[in-house]
Amino acid sequence: MKGRLLLLVLGAAAVGLSWLAFDLVSPYRGYTGNIFIVVEPGSRASQVAQLLVARGVLRYRLPFLVRYWAGRPRHALRAGEYLFDRPLRPIDVYRRLVQGDIYLHTVVIPEGSDRYDIARILNLRLGIDPEQFLRTTQQTMTIHDLDPNAPSLEGYLFPDTYRFARGVSAATVVLTMLTRFRHILATRLANQRPFPIPHSPPQLGRGTSFPTAARPPGSWRGTGSPTPDSPPQLGRGARGGVNWGWHDIITLASLVEKETPEISERPLIAGVFERRLERGMPLQSDPTVIYAAQLDHRLVGPITQSDLEFDSPYNTYRHSGLPPGPIANPGLVSIRAALHPAAGDALYFVANNQGGHVFARSLAEHQRNVSRYRRELAASRRNEPGTLSRSSRPPAEEASQKAAHSQKRARKTQQEANHP
Asked: Which pTM value belongs to this model?
């Protein structure tokens, strides 16, 4: 009798184990389309298994839990957001959660985005608090080795395509973008500087406020001779031996980035700005007026006379020289244009209604170009009503290089029509 009972128990156990083994290696999909499962920190395995069954990722809880119990304490289920888009075996679901194969969201930061643009994109894509991001980008200690005079991290948050997990902190995003900027300097611009770029910046502390160094008075160029404690200097022997710091280069590059979407024009515009700086002429760059308005928490619309008269150090209509810091985050092409402005004698430029600009050597020539531009603009508006407003922005989730360039072109068209 006892032998028969033992055989029954062993047989039931064998059937149970066979069922567990079969279920663990049998693909299952009880949902349609793609689904996301969020495993919250501190979730128990039984809660996770129940969630997976409820959402159709698993058919049964038990095989998954048996595999989990067999792997303890070596393995633990990792919190995060997981994407399921195809039938999976329970053993594979277990492995994904143990390995932390979480879903990474693609985040596109277009060239020329400023901190406020990036804050909106990150909020839309990752749910990051915009105010927290902006506060984090006010902490400049992380780039003091490159730019001790930076008023913020504007200009050093390299525009690129990134992949982040939902729930990532603002500090992690900022450090990732700064790391990308340093990588670009070290690999793409390695021959542009005589001194190595430090690779051990201070860490960005949460809740820590770092003092922001004020830009020293004087020339718009980098001043003084480099010392061991100075940020990397940029040799510019072709420009009379003048040394510029990254502060000036990135600031100039940000203006160039915002002025034109045309790659071929960027060295030309950088050359115009450099010559105006050398002659003490104000830059009169409309994007700086827009940035000054943003810093003042004012709505950005078509530029008005009051905008031009607003007393901000970023307003290059009221203040000569470069603004106190970058007004956006330039891409590699614009940084190279700032490093190597095109030679020439042009001092002015205006849009040509074709996405580019017409350059002029004298004010009289420039005024003729402006008159022609206005006539062509009026004609095009009569033929194609409904010109894109400057204040309209493409949705952040659809941000791309093409959308950013189209937006800048539309902005420039209306700005220069009102203020040549």
From this structure: 0.75
Torsion of CA 37, 40, 43, 48, to 10 degrees: 0
Token representation of residue 264: 């071929």
CA 405 – CA 262 distance, rounded (Å): 8
CB neighbour list of residue 275: distance below 8 Å, 6 or more residues apart: 344, 345, 346, 347
Which residue in the block uniquely carries the two structure tokens 């643009």? 117
Chain centroid to Cα 86, Å, comes to 32
pLDDT value at 197 more than 50 = no
**HEC sequence for 149-192:** CCCCCCCCCCCCEEEEECCCCHHHHHHHHHHHHHHHHHHCCHHH
Domain 17-102 has CATH 3.10.20.120: no
* Token couple for 350: 């205006």
DSSP type of residue 99: H
Residues near 155 by beta carbon (within 8 Å), at least 6 away in sequence: 250, 251, 253, 254, 325, 326, 328, 329, 330
The angle at the Cα of 218, spanning 214 to 219, to the nearest 5 degrees, equals 115
Q: Which of 291, 294, 244 is nearest to 270 (CA)?
A: 244
Q: How far apart are CA 86 and CA 30, in angstroms?
A: 10
Integer CA distances (angstroms), 97 to 53, 89, 144, in order: 15, 13, 40
Element of type H or E holding 334? helix 332-339
Q: Which two tokens stand for residue 22?
A: 């079969």
Whether residue 231 contacts residue 147, with contact meaning beta carbons closer than 8 Å, is answered with: yes
C-alpha–C-alpha distance, residues 311 and 64, integer Å: 65
Query: What is the enclosing helix (H) or strand (E) of 358?
Result: strand 357-360
- pLDDT tens for each residue of 109-149: 999 999 999 999 999 999 999 999 999 999 999 999 999 98
For the chain, which residues make up each domain, given as ranges?
A: 17-102, 108-196+239-418
pLDDT digits (tens, 9 = 90+) for 324-355: 999 999 999 999 999 999 999 999 998 887 88
What per-residue confidence (pLDDT) applies to 233? 45
